[in-house]
Amino acid sequence: MSSSKYIGFDTLTLHGGQRPDPTTGARATPIYQTTSFVFQETTHAASLFDLGRSGHVYSRISNPTVAVLEERVAALEGGVGGIATASGMAAIHLAITTLMGQGSHIVSSHALYGGTHNLLTFTLPRFGIETTFVDPCDPAAFRAAIQPNTRLLYAETIGNPRGEVLDIPAVANIAHAHGLPLLLDATLTTPWLLRPFDHGADLIVHSLTKFIGGHGIAIGGMVVDSGRFDWEQSGRFPTLTEPYAGFENMDFAEDFGPSAFLIRGRREGLRDFGAALSPTNAFHFLQGLETLPLRMQRHVENARRIIAFLCENAAVAHVNSPEIPDHPDHALAQRLLPRGCGSVFSFELKGGLEAGRKFIESLQLFSHLANVGDAKSLVIHPASTTHARMGAEALQQAGITEGLVRLSVGLEDAEDLIADLSRALYRSQK
């Protein structure tokens, strides 16, 4: 089944990239739990290895179950294709290393998941890749930070954990004016809330672990390519436009055009770094995708009710959500995110760290753990956990205080969630 036949989002979540198994008639995508695939004969093997024909060789590079997931997510985002990885962090790493190496520079929003901030701040500099962090609410800051060796602009569609909304068209225009691609982490929005390619982004990463999986049972990631960025015209990406000795001196842009990034990322990134997604986890994510529209609608509805409750509670100093009319990004959110801003947001609790501890330990329905996007509601204290390694200055820059609490609102009855929060907020002030 070709995804291109179907234009409805809900239809694509169920049918994109797959048809009933031709051998058995199985309606669900089979789990091809195998490491490798038998060749028909020696010439068939050789042609697969030199990309003379399509097919599967080894599941680190590609797998039929994983391929359905890649096609489906790419179709939902409006991209030319995708590469599934072992985690969201693996997807970010693959995207960056496919594009650049020693001496390269990234301009990034400072409103990031703590693990991403750690990668950019501490890990990549060891390999000669530096990052300048800027305010995501100020597109001009991206322009001002661009250097001669800049190769990428990076941000999250909605910042974690304070909910800053990126002006994607403005930042994309700045990137393209300098011959640079814009890479966005769209984990918190999913393609149901926002399709970044429609607004000028070039590459997208997802932590499939979160809303796309939806049930906290599997870890995985995805890189999706719009296929629109002109690597040759830019002249800044020799990994894609010059012969690669590691693969028969192939010029990926010349040979594969809009798929150049994806082919290089798969044939080098998955081959050499090895962060491949397992077929079983791909199966779990396909099941999650089938209910994504229904779940996201409920996530948004529940989050809106809880935000309204928190805004009126005396124990809460401030709620960080672009759903609120007086939020500085409210108008932008209404334009880019008409269906809502998702269900991950934070709020400032009166009483600081001690109040936060009492609050979290008093909750019963909200699970205290390091994840978002689960069907169950989740809570965490970012400054001491997910963002703890950022350091005092970086935390201050990102607006992450000791009294900040992050919620990921699930699919429970909103009345039960509000009752749980109400009890915990009361106890936090004692």
Plain-language structure description:
There is one protein chain. By secondary structure, the protein is of the alpha/beta class. It has 2 domains: 8-288, Type I PLP-dependent aspartate aminotransferase-like (Major domain) (Aspartate Aminotransferase, domain 2), CATH 3.40.640.10; 292-428, Aspartate Aminotransferase, domain 1 (Alpha-Beta Complex), CATH 3.90.1150.10. Helix content is 40%, strand content 14%. It contains 18 helices and 12 strands. The protein has helices at 9-15, 42-49, 64-77, 88-99, 114-123, 139-145, 168-177, 190-193, 231-234, 238-241, 252-256, 260-273, 279-290, 292-311, 330-336, 352-362, 391-398, 414-428, and strands at 81-85, 104-109, 129-134, 150-156, 182-185, 203-207, 221-225, 316-320, 344-349, 367-368, 378-380, 404-408. It has a 7-stranded mixed β-sheet with strand order 1-7-6-5-4-2-3, with helices on both faces. The protein has a 5-stranded mixed β-sheet with strand order 8-9-12-11-10. α8 (190-193) links the parallel β5 (182-185) and β6. It is globular and about 75 Å long. The mean pLDDT is 94.
